Structure to design on (911 residues):
């Protein structure tokens, strides 16, 4: 980032206000996500039914269909926003994002392998395990190839390589599986969706997402120090090997767990940190919580949008986030074009 | 029973060879495969689609093993130097157009929406193959089964929703809709004004809460498409739905087997009626 | 804290970067680390800062082996100023200086907020960056940036400050600003090790110099002992004008010692350098352009 902007004075108060505002936005999107759907649902009555544990149809729609959908939007968006903020701070590159550098694609491949080989039928817990394992491999691969001080172009090229490979492998596995719906299901894994997911999916995705997010939050201080470069960060007492392991395993757990149940949703981790960075005076550690909440709000909003758009069948979530995110990517590339050489 | 009949038909056909019959017939459509096997002499058949051997999709999977298979590519079709190609109206468009452009005789089959259209199509293909007598016999068989099914009609019609993989449902103006009403069920999707095929979100299905939920038989191979029927919400419905599992091969293509589907649906309808 | 590096050897591939180097830094002492490009100055300071493990030899902090000193504890006692450091985000000056307090933070929050504020405040005052405390780093000039980064290192309030070329790419005024600040820091009790290219600055401000040449210590001692014409000519390959002012030597590299680079031509006509006779025009009487006569 080489803008010559003047960071206005930011106090602890304004940071708290930002987090409070973002939390309110998440809450509003969450409630809207519960209220908006396909049925003719009297939201108030349904809520009353749920609270008085009456077994009505609308209560069922609310708890078994809309609740898992909203919860997944919340957790997956939270994980993606956080992972984007952490990766950008660690790699000191505003283009680093799980989707762009191929971690999400790899996770999708891992989940696809587990799902279509029938392993997921043995235990649904294996589904996130597949996603996490593949995301870990991709993470280490990227660090091996692109290194720590990766230039933007190296990072993007490595991401293109991992992404194309993962996409191809997803298609290969699906086409090899004796499944007549392969063509449409490739879309789910590569573009992502929360449609018709169940509380089971929430239950299997939440533990890895929560663990991963904790690992990512644990890097906050080191990320601040890293703004001054690796040697200075090390001289400030941070063991960067520890930070790197926290980062890779945290991203793998959070993104792998998320992708295993919702497919690869791109651009959330790119757009949100980019938008919020000026609001936290560019401080990497403060960006984490803000970006996680922003990611949740954006993902929930995008999921509301796919339900309101009159398409048959409903759009994949990644379509909406890409439409929002691709122009951001383009503008970032435009701004960084001098550095890309 | 149908297989016995077919064997008998095959023997009959071998005894009476006709003159102007096409001798190299290639099918590039699953439904055309089955019509072809039912109506033509084995030596008339040059090739079928690979789907014809798939037990989950084809009623004549065993019989299809006797014939070479293709994937519906123009190049493969040309190798057989066919004098007639059977194709679907809406599938393999590129192959069909290419074949027609180079002068191959292509018969495009519509997707029949009523039993009358099924019968007309059988006669059409029978005529093209020079097997009019077998076509008439097949039509008579279907007609007989239809009359038998209409006999058992009752005034009380439980509601039903078809739930196909990926959450697609079937509305009015389709053969499956016809078969539903023949089974004494009322198609909720058709009543809601849905035409042909459309997607039904799980949420709408729960809100509709039909008496009978018609699904395909769950496949062993994992697919997101078939995961939907395992969604926990379906087992938690306050008034559980009667689940009727219809193997897709029974009604994916029109043939005598569609009345096996009617029998399954009829049983589900009876159970739904018997419930309080 | 006393840092003592003994018998340090560092290799990079087949190349030997450092070979049996000994270096010591003590409180209140300002040590200049000098030597031509590629002599191993940056590597030595990284080894002393504990950022790089030497292939041979050991670093001791107050007599304790480096490996036995936890990184976090070391970070509170030793500050390191990276060469040509840049900041990746347009952070405000105050926040950057405050990063120097990270080693003093607890697990979840600041351990002693008041001490942090005081340290940041006095570091900013010392480096004279208070005037633009709220500006973004990326909007500052090179001289301002160098002072901010130095303030960041001062905010650690460490017992030892290791600075790698802190006056790199600064104009003379800012060079003097930074050097005076380092001198005051050393006088305040901190041990300072500073990598320098400017021999006059090294001579004027440092208590002791370590001259590295091809990975070895070529000379060590008081500036006057190290910066002799012979040693400078041998190690740097230059002949210098030099003289003394206020008890401190100044060294002005004037021409190459031999014609090895490309054939010398114009020097032929120049008079032989006769060192020690430089005359510095007194500041009060200085005309607009101070001159040296030969």
């Amino acid at each position: 980032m080489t803008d010559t902007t003047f960071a206005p004075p930011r106090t602890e108060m304004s940071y708290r206000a930002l987090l409070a505002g973002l939390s309110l936005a998440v809450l509003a999107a969450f409630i809207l996500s519960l209220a908006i759907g396909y049925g003719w649902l009297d939201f108030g009555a349904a809520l009353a039914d749920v609270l008085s544990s009456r077994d009505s149809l609308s209560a069922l729609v609310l708890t078994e269909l809309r609740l898992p959908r909203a919860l997944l939007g919340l957790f997956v968006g939270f994980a993606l926003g956080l992972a984007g903020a952490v990766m950008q701070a660690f790699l000191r590159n505003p283009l680093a994002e799980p989707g762009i550098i191929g971690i999400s694609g790899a996770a999708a491949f891992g989940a696809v392998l587990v799902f279509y080989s029938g392993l997921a039928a043995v235990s649904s817990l294996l589904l996130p395990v597949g996603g996490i394992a593949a995301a870990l491999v991709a993470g280490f691969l990227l660090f091996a190839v692109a290194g720590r001080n990766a230039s933007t172009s190296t990072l993007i090229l490595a991401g293109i390589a991992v992404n194309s490979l993962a996409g191809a492998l997803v298609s290969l596995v699906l086409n090899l599986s004796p499944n007549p719906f392969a063509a449409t299901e490739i879309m789910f894994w590569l573009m992502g969706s929360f449609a018709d997911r169940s509380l089971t999916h929430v239950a299997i995705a939440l533990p890895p997402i929560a663990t991963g997010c904790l690992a990512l939050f644990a890097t906050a201080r080191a990320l601040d120090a890293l703004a001054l470069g690796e040697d200075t960060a090390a001289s400030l007492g941070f063991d960067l090997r520890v930070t790197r392991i926290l980062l890779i395993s945290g991203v793998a757990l959070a993104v792998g767990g998320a992708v295993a149940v919702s497919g690869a949703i791109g651009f959330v981790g790119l757009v949100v940190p980019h938008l919020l960075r000026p609001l936290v005076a560019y401080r990497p550690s403060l960006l984490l919580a803000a970006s996680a909440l922003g990611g949740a709000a954006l993902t929930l909003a995008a999921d509301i949008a796919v339900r309101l758009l009159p398409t048959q069948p409903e759009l994949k979530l990644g379509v909406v986030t890409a439409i929002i995110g691709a122009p951001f990517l383009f503008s970032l590339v435009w701004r960084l074009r001098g550095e890309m050489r | 029973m149908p297989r016995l009949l077919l064997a008998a038909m095959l023997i009959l056909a071998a005894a009476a060879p006709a003159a102007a019959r096409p001798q190299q017939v290639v099918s590039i459509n699953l439904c055309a495969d089955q019509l072809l096997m039912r109506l033509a002499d084995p030596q008339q058949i040059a090739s079928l689609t690979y789907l014809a051997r798939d037990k989950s999709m084809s009623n004549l999977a065993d019989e299809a093993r006797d014939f070479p298979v293709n994937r519906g590519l123009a190049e493969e079709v040309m190798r057989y130097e066919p004098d007639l190609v059977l194709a679907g109206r809406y599938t393999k468009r590129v192959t069909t157009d290419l074949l027609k452009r180079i002068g191959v005789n292509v018969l495009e089959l519509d997707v029949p929406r009523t039993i009358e259209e099924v019968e007309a199509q059988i006669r059409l293909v029978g005529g093209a193959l020079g097997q009019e007598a077998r076509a008439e016999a097949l039509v008579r068989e279907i007609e007989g089964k239809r009359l038998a099914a209409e006999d058992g009609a009752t005034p009380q019609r439980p509601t039903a929703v078809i739930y196909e993989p990926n959450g697609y449902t079937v509305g009015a103006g389709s053969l499956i809709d016809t078969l539903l009403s023949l089974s004494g069920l009322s198609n909720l999707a058709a009543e809601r004004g849905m035409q042909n095929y459309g997607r039904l979100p799980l949420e709408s299905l729960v809100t509709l809460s039909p008496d009978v939920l018609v699904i395909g038989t769950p496949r062993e191979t994992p697919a997101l498409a078939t995961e939907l029927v395992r969604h926990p919400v379906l087992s938690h419905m306050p008034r559980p739905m009667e689940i009727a599992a219809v193997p897709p091969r029974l009604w994916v293509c029109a043939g005598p087997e569609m009345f096996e589907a009617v029998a399954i649906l009829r049983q589900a309808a009876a159970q739904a009626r018997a419930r309080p | 804290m006393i840092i003592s590096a003994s018998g340090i050897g560092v290799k990079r591939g087949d190349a030997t970067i450092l070979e049996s180097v000994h270096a010591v830094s003590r409180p209140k002492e300002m040590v200049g680390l000098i030597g031509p490009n590629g002599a191993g100055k940056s590597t030595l300071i990284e080894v002393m800062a504990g950022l790089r493990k030497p292939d041979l030899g050991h670093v001791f902090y107050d007599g304790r082996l480096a490996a036995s000193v936890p990184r976090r504890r070391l970070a509170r006692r030793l500050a390191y100023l990276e060469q040509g450091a840049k900041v990746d985000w347009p952070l405000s000056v105050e926040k950057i200086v405050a990063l120097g307090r990270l080693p003093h933070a607890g697990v979840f929050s600041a351990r002693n907020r008041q001490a942090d504020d005081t340290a940041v405040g006095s570091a900013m005052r010392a480096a004279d960056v208070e005037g633009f405390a709220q500006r973004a780093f990326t909007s500052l000039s090179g001289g301002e940036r160098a002072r901010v980064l130095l303030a960041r290192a001062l905010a650690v309030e460490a017992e030892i400050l290791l600075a790698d070329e802190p006056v790199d790419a600064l104009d003379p005024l800012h060079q003097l600003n930074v050097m005076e600040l380092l001198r005051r820091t050393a006088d305040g009790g901190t041990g300072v090790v500073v990598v320098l290219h400017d021999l006059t600055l090294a001579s004027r401000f440092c208590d002791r110099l370590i001259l590295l040449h091809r990975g070895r210590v070529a000379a060590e001692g008081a500036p006057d002992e190290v910066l002799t014409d012979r040693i400078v000519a041998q190690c740097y390959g230059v002949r210098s004008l030099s003289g003394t002012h206020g008890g401190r030597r100044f060294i002005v590299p004037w021409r190459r010692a031999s014609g090895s680079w490309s054939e010398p031509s114009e020097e032929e006509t120049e008079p032989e350098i006769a060192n020690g006779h430089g005359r510095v025009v007194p500041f009060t009487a200085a005309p607009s352009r101070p001159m040296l006569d030969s």
